[in-house]
Amino acid sequence: QAPDSFPPLRNEAAVRVLRGRMKGIQGHCNSCYMDAALFSLFSCTSVLDSMLFKPFPLCDRNVQSILRDEIVNPLRKTGFVRAGSVMHLREQLTEKGQCSSFTNAEKDPEEFLNLIMQQILGIEPLLKLQSGGQKEQDCYCYQIFMDKQEDLVVPDVQQLVERSFLSSDLKLVEIPSCFIIQMPRFGKEYKMFSKIIPSLELDITDLLLDSPRECCVCGDVATLECS
């Protein structure tokens, strides 16, 4: 355990601490969905560090301390988290949640995020989405859904997000403080893409509802949008 607090890893420090054998979060008993989510959320970014420290109204301080002291801090300090630490968290989630199989079964990452962010820590939803002018939807992460497209062999995240929003007629109601995106590459049976290239920056200009944008013909502020 690492009781002190450590900042997220950046640049050369991230490479030095996280690269090599016995690095990352040790997998055990179908934990890959949780390992990948925790690594993505905390190893190299502080956007969600409020989950570790802030006393939210519904916050379970035991789960919060396990997350902070047994998983995030060791990951940032040494680049390694043992499977027992994640199992400790999974046991707590099983106890606090409505599902008895968090300790042994493979889950959808969205189910894990909803449980820990909403029911256990009491965090407000991170995303506000609107589909086809209907009522706003609040959520914690966005899962990419799209049909197989032959022209996308090795896509990047920017392409997948734009095409998924377009096919679902979705818009972001506001700029999110944190945009968690689940790729169409999960589960044991089916992978839509063999590889996905990470986009180091994400341009959400065309995904925002009622955002002023430039006309691609004349350069003035656009008044119409063609999908």
TrEMBL record:
Domain Peptidase C19 ubiquitin carboxyl-terminal hydrolase: 24-204
Intracellular or extracellular location(s): Cytoplasm, Cytoskeleton, Spindle
Domain of life: Eukaryota
PROSITE patterns: USP_1
Entry GO CC: microtubule; spindle
Main location: cytoplasm
Cited Pfam families: UCH
A single MF term (Gene Ontology): cysteine-type deubiquitinase activity
Keyword Nucleotide-binding annotated: no
Record keywords: Cytoplasm, Hydrolase, Microtubule
PANTHER family: 40S RIBOSOMAL PROTEIN S3A
Protein known as: CYLD hydrolase
Gene that produces this protein: Cyld
